[in-house]
Amino acid sequence: MPMHALHDEHLDHDLATIRIKNLRLRTYIGINEDEIQNRQDVVINVVIRYRAARAVQFNHISEALNYRTITKQLIRHVEEGRFALLERMTREVLDIVMAHEQVLTAQVEIDKPHALRFSDSVSITLSDSREAHD
């Protein structure tokens, strides 16, 4: 199958994608007494899109979206929090990511391993975006 050339109007050369993959944390999540009393594992995946032209040009962290800072915020929030619903935890994690002005779009998926019998996990995915600023 031949490859079709992409024209410049279809490319966004400075849009970067950051993926935080399989961030494994322990927190209080659920509505059953056992879940309220005991921490459980959750697995967080985050996809972030931002304009990276200045980071590429200047090759300095001050010009980049610092994914380490975001990850530390997520770890602190999730591990110190208590959540009844996976939907609520996912929204709160997404809000932390979107609080960074450089973020144009983000998607968060949180898995709760072994939430259902015979299932590896149950997950919730939420996404958000803002208008691009020049």
From TrEMBL:
<dbReference type="InterPro" id="IPR006156">
    <property type="entry name" value="Dihydroneopterin_aldolase"/>
</dbReference>
<dbReference type="GO" id="GO:0005829">
    <property type="term" value="C:cytosol"/>
</dbReference>
<dbReference type="Pfam" id="PF02152">
    <property type="entry name" value="FolB"/>
</dbReference>
<dbReference type="InterPro" id="IPR043133">
    <property type="entry name" value="GTP-CH-I_C/QueF"/>
</dbReference>
<protein>
    <recommendedName>
        <fullName>Dihydroneopterin triphosphate 2'-epimerase</fullName>
        <ecNumber>5.1.99.7</ecNumber>
    </recommendedName>
</protein>
<comment type="similarity">
    <text>Belongs to the DHNA family.</text>
</comment>
<dbReference type="InterPro" id="IPR006157">
    <property type="entry name" value="FolB_dom"/>
</dbReference>
<dbReference type="GO" id="GO:0004150">
    <property type="term" value="F:dihydroneopterin aldolase activity"/>
</dbReference>
<feature type="domain" description="Dihydroneopterin aldolase/epimerase">
    <location>
        <begin position="18"/>
        <end position="128"/>
    </location>
</feature>
<dbReference type="GO" id="GO:0008719">
    <property type="term" value="F:dihydroneopterin triphosphate 2'-epimerase activity"/>
</dbReference>
<dbReference type="GO" id="GO:0006760">
    <property type="term" value="P:folic acid-containing compound metabolic process"/>
</dbReference>
<keyword id="KW-0413">Isomerase</keyword>
